[in-house]
Structures are given as structure tokens and as C-alpha cells.
Write a structure and sequence with these properties.
The structure is a homodimer of 339-residue chains. The first copy, chain A, has 339 residues and is of the alpha/beta class. The first copy, chain A, has helices at 10-17, 21-28, 36-49, 55-62, 77-91, 110-121, 136-144, 168-181, 197-212, 229-240, 254-266, 284-288, 300-312; strands at 67-72, 97-102, 125-128, 148-153, 163-166, 187-190, 222-223, 248-251, 276-280, 294-297, 323-324, 327-329. Chain A has 3 domains: 10-53, 434 Repressor (Amino-terminal Domain) (Orthogonal Bundle); 62-167 and 300-325, 3-Layer(aba) Sandwich (Rossmann fold), CATH 3.40.50; 168-298, Response regulator (Rossmann fold, 3-Layer(aba) Sandwich). In chain A, strand 1, helix 5 and strand 2 form a beta-alpha-beta unit. Chain A is elongated. At the A-B interface, helix 4, helix 5, strand 2, helix 6 and helix 11 of A face helix 4, helix 5, strand 2, helix 6 and helix 11 of B. The first copy, chain A, binds a DNA duplex (30 and 30 nucleotides) through helix 2 and helix 4.
Chain lengths: 339, 339
DNA sequence: AAAGCTTTTGACACCGGTTTCCTTTTTCGC
DNA sequence: GCGAAAAAGGAAACCGGTGTCAAAAGCTTT
């Protein structure tokens, strides 16, 4: 019995099994060039000792570790967490682990901070969440540092090996179609912040659908927002106080949509009788607000899983998928317009 | 110039500076036994080469790595993310990184899964979030495996070195005091799930405060819940349909409180005019619901930071703190009872 | 100037794996 | 039954750091 109370090493296994380190290594790595006899013998010793290879030693010898990183600028807690779960789905039963790294996209030293982080941790690869996934300099940084990367976002900003995207544009079109089918004509838009690709996609989807239906969108039916609750409140206020009040509002995310709910309430407008509202994200707030909100949900978890697979198993079938369909989640904030 | 396009190693630095590896190592680790001359000389070479020590090699040599783990069973996305941010506050400018590991507390193999995880990753230490932080077997597992740990929770379940706790009980008492001061007498409680320490603490705080004010709590003024929205909706329904309707409800978390908002609305009761509601957690939903909810907020981020410091710098002053005060966040879901 | 300290530095083993390369054993064709 | 090829296994170097310990250098002291 080797010195007890210490975690066993490959040497202990080798000694006890009466073979060389290399042979044990072969067993661990399921090398084909091994007799069935030695394999079972070594495996028995491994089981008896409860031996688990030291990941640091492996990382050193292999010159690569088994750490995936998640870079994000908290777009929304639920989303970040779901992505984490998706990544965990992908790396379950592998030796990979997930390292998280929140960043501040407004920091002037963003790139340098991340460079430092990557140098320090030497990650196997990173997943980049929107909105910082839209930063091309970041992708270049990863390339330069030999660190794998996959971006998540609302449009294909990179080649399929490096991108997992939802189809925001189409889904917004579907949401608008839904409103038009119910009879809405004056549909207003609360936009997301300038410079966000997702905001851009959602606006373009909105405008395209409206044009397709031959509906004009006056300036008074478009209001800017920041993706935050307060901006939704304010923007909806503007829209609802306009001379030609809209019968429906599409908000570029749920938080702003919930601001719109409040703006309606302040004006004694009932949702959905007096005003229909559709949000985007299917965040918990959409289900918990009153009335429950119709919104567009995208498969965050599955996308996180696919992104991780692209990094760790590019050959896998799922890893080939880059575009993920969203779907309209119909609840109770939409009704036909009155009269 | 050493072979370019490869990241430089300690050997490259040593060769270029004309010193031994060990001396470079001393410079990196700020050893005191070094002449000023050599130090500056070596530092110059390090800067020139952009040398960064390989964390895997260090981990192997030191027989410990610089990875902190976060074990959680998603009590609430916002909380998990805030803890992550707090941990990041603590490890910023250190070589530590944070590995996340969501688990399923209902899995029959929970302990074995985590044992496997710890064996595989050999973390420096882990932070354990409620509710799984209440599992003593988990703490024992960490001890057994030589892995540092700090639990977060709502009561001191462990000694100060291993615990960071809020004071839920006191805060619920403060919330009840607030309601009583406004004139409420019939105050109902929506409880959290059995077996959750936080649910226990909040209930005890509630009952203690009521008793202190000489108010009885009939069975009809207590309803069980699961911390989920639907359970709050259902529980509040029970409470509001009782013969003696309460004028105020304390819900053991915000999600259930928001369910209570809906239950009130379904019965044409206005919040806060006909019914006051107080929640717990100060989650985003509390601010975004209508009317904005009065709730109890606890300093999640600071607690995450403190927990991480306990692991990585037990000597630090902050690391000594184990109890963190929550505070009552007054918004608009509370008013004096009518007549 | 030699002896005796203290400070600074380096040689070498080691952490626990993998890789390279070579030797030994087995298998198999003829 | 023999030689050759294939299969199995091992020795030693290596990955990039740190720890030990002794040597070298610098500085006093006598």
C-alpha cells in the first residue's frame, strides 16, 4: 500500500500494478495498443486506489488545459445563467470546467483586461455573450492569443465555426404578423440601444414586416430605449401620448415591455383590451407580470450547449448547428384592437 | 531572441537575463532575498518578452491551483449572478478564477456527483449557495477532500471561517414591525418550502415579531409555498378567501409575493389600498411589478465577496465578517389598512 | 589578510502526467 | 521451426514552474 492519506498518483498505480507509468497512462487514455490482460489488471488497481489523474499535471504535459471561459456583460441574469446551464450540459461527463468572467463593456481597458485574463488563465476557449460578442476586436484578440472562441448573438457576425445565432429578425417579423392578423394597424416600436446588434436586428425585422403589410411607421410610432425598465416606461409614455395612439407596442426586450405595462397603467389603459404589448426574451418577468406577457423566446440554453460543443467537439453533429429558431410565446398581453 | 511565436517560458527569461530559473522565480514571487540589481534586470526582460507564468505549471509545482468553485442550485438567477460578481470583486487582480457548477439538489447522487467534480478539478476552495449550503454532508465532503469551503445562508450553520450569513430573522421582524406601525393587525404569512433553512428563519422571524406585538396568527393566516410564483398565487388565494381577510401579507420571497399581487388582482383588490404586500430578496421583479414592491434586500454581492475572501485571504479584515445586515427596501406595495 | 557572517545566487531534484524512442515478446507465414 | 513483422511495454526526457541545499559573493571583524 503506498503512503496512505495522500491522493494516489500515477506512480502509485504503476508500482502496485507492476507496470510502468506509461502503461497506466495508456490505460487512462484508452490507447488501443494494450493487451486485455494488462488493461484489466491496471483498471483494478485504479479502482482500488480510487485514482484520479491530476488535471494540472495533464494540462502541463498536454500544453492545454480543460477550462472554458464565459465572457459576458450581464445582459440579463436569466440569460447568463441559462447559458451557463447549457454549457454545463455540453461538458457534463467530460473533464472540462467552466470559468466565468463578467466584464464591463464600457471600460476603456476592456481589451487589455481580457488579454490579461486570457494570458493568466490560458483557457482552452471562451464563449462570448452579447453585447460584447459584437466586438470584433475581441474575436481578433482570441485568434491572436491562440484561444478558441465562439460568439453568441442575434445575427451571424462570424463564420459558422465561431458563431451561434438566433434569428431575431424573423421572429420579430412573426410577432408583427401576429399583431396584424389580429387587426392591429397602428403598431409602435420601442427600440433597443444604438450600437447593439440585437437592437438593430429587431428594428429591421419590425420595419420589414410593417412594410410587407403595407403599413407606414411614422416617427411618432418609434421611440428609443436602452433595454432597461425605465427607458421602456419613458418610451411607452411618448408613444401613448402621441396624437395617433398605437393599439399595439412591440418592445425590443421584456424589461422595456414591462415598463410599457406600467406606462399604460398610469394612463388607465388596460392591457390587452386597450393596448397590446409584445416583448422579447421570454424572461421570468414576462410570466410574472400582470397580465402574463406575450413575448419571443429564444433557446438560450440550447445555444449555450451548442456553443460549448463547437469549442470542445467541433466534429460533433450538434456543433454544426449555428442558427437557432426562436418562437413566439403567446400569453395574455395581446388581443384584437377595440372597434 | 528565443524561438519566437511561442509564448515565452521561465527558461527564456532566465537565458536572456543571464540568471537561473530559480532567480526568475524569485522575482515573480517577490521574494525578499534578491538584490535590487538583479530584480530590475529580470523585470526588464520579463516586460520585454511579455512573459506570464504558466498557471498549470505553477499549480503542479505548488500542489494547489487557483480555482474557486461556485456550487449552486439556482435559487434565483439574479442572486447567483450577484454572488458571481462579488466573488469577482474579491479575486480581481489575483490569479484566481471562478469555476461555476450548477447542481440538482434532488439528484440522489448529489454528493457523489460533487465528489467526482472535486476530485476531477481539485479546486482550491468552493462557495456553496443556499439551499444546498444547508447540506452538512456537503461540508463534510469538502473537509474530507481537503477542499476549502464557505457556505452562504440565512443563519450561522457553521463556524465563522466557513460561513457567511444574512440575518433573515431580524429583517423579517423589521418588516412586520413596519406593517404593525402602519396599523396592520391581520397580517398573513406565505411560507417557504419545508426543509429550507431560509424558510424556517423567515417564518420564525415572522412569528416572533407577531408574538412580540401580542398579535395572534391563526392557521388561516399561514399558507405554505414553494418559493415559486404559482405557489404564491395559490397561497395568497387561500389567505384572501379566508373569512377574516388579512390586510397585509408577508411572502417569504419576491416570486411568491408577485404571485400574491396576481391573486389580489384576480379578486379586485388593489395593492396597496386594499392589501399591503412585502416580499423578500429585492429581486428585479420587485422593482418591475406594479406597484413597485416593498421588500427585504440582502447584500448578496458583498456576501459573495466576503465568502471568497474567507477562502483566499483568511487573514484579511473583511474576511472576518460573517454576518451581513439586510435592509427593508420601501416602495409602493405597503400602505396603512383602510378604516 | 584571514576568518566568520550574511546575503545572493544557482544546480538539481521534484510535482504528475505525456511523448519519444527503443527493447522485448508474441504472432504468423512459409 | 525460423525469421520477420506486429504488438506490448518500458526508460528517460520533457512540460514549466517551485523547493532544497549548498556554493559564491559581499561585508565585518580581528
Amino acid at each position: 500500500m503506498p503512503k496512505s492519506n495522500k491522493t494516489p498518483t500515477i506512480n502509485d498505480v504503476a508500482r502496485l500494478a507492476g507496470v510502468s507509468k506509461k502503461t497506466v497512462s495508456r490505460v487512462i487514455n484508452r490507447s488501443a495498443l494494450l493487451s486485455e490482460d494488462t488493461r484489466t489488471k491496471v483498471e483494478a488497481v485504479i479502482a482500488e486506489l480510487g485514482y484520479v489523474p491530476n488535471p494540472q499535471a495533464r494540462a502541463l504535459a498536454l500544453r492545454r488545459n480543460f477550462l472554458l471561459g464565459l465572457l459576458h456583460d450581464n445582459p440579463n441574469a436569466q440569460t447568463v445563467l441559462k447559458v451557463q446551464e447549457g454549457v454545463l450540459d455540453a461538458i457534463r461527463d467530460t473533464e472540462f470546467a467552466l470559468v466565468v468572467r463578467p466584464v464591463d463593456r464600457h471600460s476603456p481597458t476592456l481589451i487589455e483586461d481580457i488579454r490579461h485574463f486570457l494570458e493568466l488563465q490560458r483557457l482552452y476557449g471562451v464563449l462570448i455573450l452579447p453585447p460584447i460578442s459584437e466586438n470584433d476586436a475581441l474575436a481578433e484578440l482570441c485568434l491572436e492569443m491562440g484561444c478558441g472562441y465562439v460568439r453568441m448573438g442575434s445575427a451571424m457576425l462570424d463564420d459558422a465555426d465561431h458563431m451561434v445565432a438566433s434569428n431575431d429578425r424573423e421572429m420579430v417579423e412573426a410577432a408583427v404578423d401576429h399583431l396584424v392578423e389580429l387587426g392591429h394597424r397602428r403598431i409602435a416600436l420601442i427600440e433597443g440601444p444604438k450600437g447593439f446588434r440585437s437592437a438593430h436586428e429587431r428594428r429591421e425585422g419590425f420595419l420589414a414586416a410593417m412594410a410587407r403589410h403595407g403599413l407606414v411607421v411614422p416617427d411618432s410610432a418609434r421611440a428609443p430605449g436602452t433595454y432597461r425598465f425605465e427607458s421602456g416606461l419613458e418610451a411607452a409614455g411618448l408613444l401613448l401620448d402621441a396624437s395617433e395612439r398605437p393599439t399595439a407596442i412591440f418592445a425590443s426586450n421584456d424589461e422595456m415591455a414591462s415598463g410599457a405595462f406600467h406606462a399604460a397603467r398610469q394612463r388607465n389603459l388596460r392591457v390587452p383590451d386597450d393596448l397590446s404589448i409584445i416583448g422579447f426574451d421570454d424572461s421570468p418577468i414576462a410570466a410574472h407580470i400582470w397580465p402574463p406577457m406575450t413575448t419571443v423566446g429564444w433557446p438560450v440554453r440550447e445555444m449555450g450547449r451548442a456553443a460549448a460543443l463547437k469549442l470542445i467537439a467541433p466534429a460533433e453533429e450538434v456543433a454544426g448547428e449555428s442558427r437557432f429558431p426562436a418562437r413566439l410565446v403567446k400569453r395574455q398581453s395581446v388581443a384584437p384592437p377595440k372597434a
